[in-house]
Write a structure and sequence with these properties.
Helix content is 38%, strand content 16%. By secondary structure, it is an alpha/beta fold. It is built from 13 helices and 9 strands. The longest helix has 13 residues, at 167-179. It starts with a strand and ends in an 11-residue tail after the last helix.
Amino acid sequence: MIVVTGATGNVGRALVASLTGAGHAVTAVARGIGAPLPAGRHVTPATADLSAPETLAPALAGAEALFLLVPGAGAGIDAPALLKAAAVAGTGRVVLLSSQAVGTRPGAVSHAPMAAIEEAVRAAGLEWTILRAGSLASNTLAWAPDVRAGRAVAAPYGDVALPVVDPADVAEVAAAALTGGTHTGRSYVLTGPEPVSPRECTQILGTVLGRPLGFAELSGEEARARMLSFMPAPVADGTLAILGHPTPEETRVSPDVARVLGRPGRPFADWARRNADAFRPVSRP
């Protein structure tokens, strides 16, 4: 049995589907708020708050592996306690979803908690794999309310291109690491197959929807004010630094998705086609 935390998110839900599709039993864990937990054959739903490690212990009983996706960029998470709970339960393997910025921006305040969690994972005495994901294609779901309402997409740094990664690719790499020992002790950087800018993503999404979409570029200050409504200031500042002033490594396409999966990562257009309904107006009965 494999425990998947963050099971209601874009990566977690895809990971549950990937694992159960291959016949693995999964305990799907979330905090019990927001979207419903995945259901179906081979899936056992469970609730836990990772900021209270003792709440995860019941879900770990009998688990062979743990997918660790922590909220809030890792702030307030006692990773050693979580990993101790996994070790006590007999869980032998942990796969951590981390951030590319841990490697590209060492010492950054915004990613210091995640860097500490990576160190805890390496020191826990378990088989481990760390997935350092770049910007996720699903971050553009933040545009959905404006697109559904017929308003222009509003985003900063409209012409700065990053190789955004499809959450489904992150999930497939995670599934490989959770179920195969050849990935033990490795850290992978996960990106998409080509850099795309917010303006280009808007154009691609408009093509998928069959209608042109406007684009309104926010200033850094405007974007920061919006971000502060749902993330701490250090995380907002760190995110804006990547979006507006990426390092050469952050604009580079990593080969790791292809190395693990034996195929290139999915382009943004593929993600947009699969998620187009999220951007369409809700029809009224």
